[in-house]
Design goal:
By secondary structure, this protein is α/β, with parallel strands linked by helices. Helix content is about 35%, strand content about 20%.
Length: about 250
């Protein structure tokens, strides 16, 4: 990659799980990890890429797990949404410490800490060179943050949904449990759904498929991977009906 190389994407939606923010801790937020993620986002942002982020809340509270323990599912999901707001504010703080203008937009109203999500407002923030962090999922119970990432990506007309994970991409089986698992470099939406692969939940993949929004699954724990994907390097797994050559330079 030369200094004259240009990003292959101009506007991205980055999906970060809550677990990514806790690093090696068993719970909560690791400030050093959040600072590292913020620095990587900044490096992409200064290239002129418009960045929006959907953040999960699993490091603090998982609605589905709480529901299985006896809490009403809708109530548990709303509690999970509140956890994503906490993570969004933490990431905003880290980004602002790098002198990157950032706004948190929440799907549920918490006016003291975030703006209420309005699609046109979100797009305007991006046009004004601000990183936008979407919190509280879709604002509705029974929907995952994967679905929120697909939905927000479409609403802001992102060119790609970049799903940050703890493994290198999408595999034939769990690579932690199966040493012989093979990573896909490219999948169609239908293949991902038919094979039950852990890309995103089925409804989110279907929404992306219906609207031709590509999904890029990559390892967030490898420093520089956000930049590599944006610059068109061969990293992770692309889920799209288009050829990988449309997104990959090398």
């Amino acid at each position: 990659m030369t200094t004259t190389a240009k990003p292959v994407f101009k506007r991205i939606l980055l999906k970060i799980s809550g677990e990514a923010l806790m690093g090696d801790k068993g719970y909560g937020i690791d400030p050093a990890v959040v600072a590292g993620i913020a620095e990587e986002i900044k490096q992409v942002h200064v290239l002129g890429v418009e960045v929006a982020v959907v953040v999960g809340g699993g490091n603090i509270f998982r609605g589905l797990a709480a529901s299985a323990s006896g809490i009403d599912r809708a109530s548990a999901d709303y509690m999970g949404m509140l956890a994503t707001i906490m993570n969004a504010v933490a990431l905003q703080d880290a980004l602002e410490k790098t002198d990157t203008a950032t706004r948190v937009l929440s799907a549920i109203e918490v006016r003291e800490v975030a703006e209420l999500f309005i699609r046109r407002r979100a797009v305007r923030h991006l046009e004004k060179r601000r990183v936008v962090i979407f919190a509280a999922g879709t604002g509705n119970p029974f929907f995952t943050t994967d679905m929120a990432a697909a939905l927000r990506g479409l609403e802001i007309k992102a060119e790609v949904v970049m799903k940050a994970t703890k493994v290198d991409g999408v595999y034939t089986a769990d690579p932690v449990k199966h040493a012989d698992a093979v990573m896909f470099q490219h999948l169609t939406y239908k293949d991902a759904i038919a094979q039950g692969l852990q890309v995103m939940d089925t409804s989110a993949i279907s929404l992306c498929m219906d609207n031709k929004l590509p999904i890029y699954v990559f390892n967030l724990r490898k420093a520089g991977n956000i930049m590599r994907v944006v610059m068109g390097e061969r990293v992770g797994t692309l889920v799209s009906d288009k050829s990988p050559s449309d997104f990959v330079k090398s």
